Structures are given as C-alpha cells and as structure tokens.
Amino acid sequence: MTKSTSEKSLVNSNGKIVKREDATVSIFDRGFLFGDSIYEVTHTYDQVPFHLEEHLDRLENSARGIGMDLEFSKDFLKKEIDKTCQALGLPRQYLRIIITRGEGEIGLDPALSQSQNFFIIAKELPEYPKRWYEKGLSVIIAQVIRNPKKSIDPNVKSGNYLNNVMAMQQAKEMGADDAVMLNHKGQVTECTTSNIWIIQGQKIMTPPLQAGLLGGITRKALLALGKKHGLDMIESNFTADSLKQADEAFITSSTKEIVPITKIDGKNLGSGNPGEVTKKLTKLYQDYVRETISSYKS
User: Fold this and answer.
1) For 77-91, how does the pLDDT look when each residue is reduced to its tens digit (9 = 90+)?
2) How far lies 218's CA from each of 171, 246, 268, 282, in Å?
3) In angstroms, rounded to a whole number, what is the distance separating the alpha carbons of residues 101 and 32?
4) Closest among 189, 127, 101 to 153, alpha carbons compared
5) Is residue 43 within 8 Å of residue 37, measured between CB atoms?
6) What is the pLDDT of residues 122-141, one digit of tens each?
7) 236-271: per-residue pLDDT in tens?
C-alpha cells in the first residue's frame, strides 16, 4: 500500500517538468541498479535556492570522486533549477539535484553507460516539528559504522546511501530520531544526514573531514560564522563517550539548519534541554541566513 502525500511537488526529468506521479527512470539506469549517481540537496527561502553555488561546487567534487565527467555545466543546472522552482512557485521548497551515469547494458563497468541523466525534485518543504528545536533530538550511537574513505568516501554525496539507511533503521527501532555514526577507530563522524557538534564550556567542536564525513555546507558556514564572532570553533576528533559527556550537542544540515540534541542512547545529555550556546549559535545562523538572502535579492 503506497502512502499518499499532500505536499505539492514537481520533477524536472532531463529538462522536462512533470508531475510527481509521472516521473519515471529506466530500470537500466545505473543510478537505480548500482547507486551510480551523485546528488545535492538544498532548499529555498522566498523561492531563492540557498548556497546554490556551494552545492553545485560540491556536486562537481562528488562527480570527480566517482570518476564521472559531468555533461552538464553549472550554468545549465542553475537555469534548470530556476525553471523548476518557478514552475512549483512556492516560497519554501526542498530541492534535490540528481545526476546518474545513465543507462546501458547491465554490468559494473562505467563505460557501459550511455549519456547521463539529470533530475531535479522540487517539493513543498513544510516546517520541521517544533519539538526538535524546543525540546531537542534523541539519538543513538549506531552499531553500523561509517563507510571508510578507502571504501566509499563519505565526502562524495552519492546515491549509494545504504550505510546511512541501516543506521537510521537502528535509530527508529530504538525509538530515536537519528543515529550517530562512528568510524572504524571509534571516533564520531556524523549523523545519517547531518553533521554533529559538541560543546564543552565555551569550546564548540565538530569532527574533521579526515574522520570520514560529508563536508556540510551549513557546517562550513557555521565554522566561519563562529570564528567571525570570536567563538572557539574547533575541528577535532572525539569519541562517543566524549559526546555523551558534553555540555551540549547539536546537528547542522542545509534544510534543518541547527537542531539541538538532548538525549543519547535513551539518557539525557547535560540538562536534557537545549543549551544556551546552541541557542546563541542558532540566532547567529538565522541572522546570517536573512543577510545572505537579502544580498541575493539586492
């Protein structure tokens, strides 16, 4: 039985905008068969895609990471994204840009593929649950470890996401909102779709890229923003025990922005409520978003 959705959505399929129910992909597409694809997710404020240049830069980096020579320029993708956003016509949209290596005979050799396919999913982005921001998230330490860089580099945003799916499955089975993934050394990397941070005193810490994680656009912006305001922003490895002993913790992502973590493995973190430093960072980031969107429009 399929779930229905009341969210408005459209799909740009190789330049043709169609309704959600009319969007299809060949079963011989390598993205479907092998996860041989790359993607980016951003969203709009007042119909303006946020940090679009940075997301398209990262899309190109992901393509290099899997040896894919992109057939689509950034200017071309920007026009298609704008066309799709205008067609949906909503101020707050979720945008997912996907490029697959294309269709071809079944086989692992990438040379079997034909021309690449691109898809842009634009859909209404409802507000996330208020309890996330007011009460905080509950997370677990996943038993599934993060893919090592020499296997599938987590800094490549590819369609091969089973590693994260399995971690999220564990979280849901334990009644949590999300899962924290460790690397093979037992160091914290990230959550399933977001970067993670801890606060000890006035030190604000997030794992370095070398730990094996995706370099988040919001993560990068927050690091720069905090340093600009004189905050002690640090990229350093830490363990699950350090996470559990932190004063505060939170996640960052393009669509969710900053969300507090208040419970880990069923136990309260710190006071069990969103902390003051997290609240301060949230305000700084929201001000930054408003200023950035205003600069886009000027």
Assistant:
1) 999 999 999 999 999
2) 23, 21, 26, 12
3) 10
4) 189
5) no
6) 999 999 999 999 999 999 99
7) 999 999 999 999 999 999 999 999 999 999 999 999
DSSP per-residue codes, the chain:
-PPP--S-EEEEETTEEEEGGG----TTBHHHHH--EEEEEEEEETTEETTHHHHHHHHHHHHHHTT---SS-HHHHHHHHHHHHHHH--SSEEEEEEEE--BBSSSS-GGGB-S-EEEEEEEE-PPPPHHHHHT-EEEEE-SSPPPPTTTS-TTS-BS--HHHHHHHHHHHHTT-SEEEEE-TTSBEEEESSSEEEEEETTEEEE--GGGT----HHHHHHHHHHHHTT-EEEE---BHHHHHT-SEEEEEETTTEEEEEEEETTEE-TTSS--HHHHHHHHHHHHHHHHHHHHHH-
Written as six digits, the tokens of 24 are: 């299809």
**Cα separation of 143 and 129, whole Å?**
27
Cβ-in-10-Å burial (0-12, 13-18, 19+) of 48 comes to middle
Number of other CB atoms surrounding residue 261 within 10 Å? 28
Q: Read off the amino acid at residue 241.
A: D
**Which residues participate in catalysis according to the annotation?**
157
Chain mean pLDDT for the chain: 95
- In the block, residue with structure tokens 């799916």: 165
Q: Distance between CA atoms of 121 and 46, rounded to whole angstroms? A: 17
Q: pTM for this one?
A: 0.94
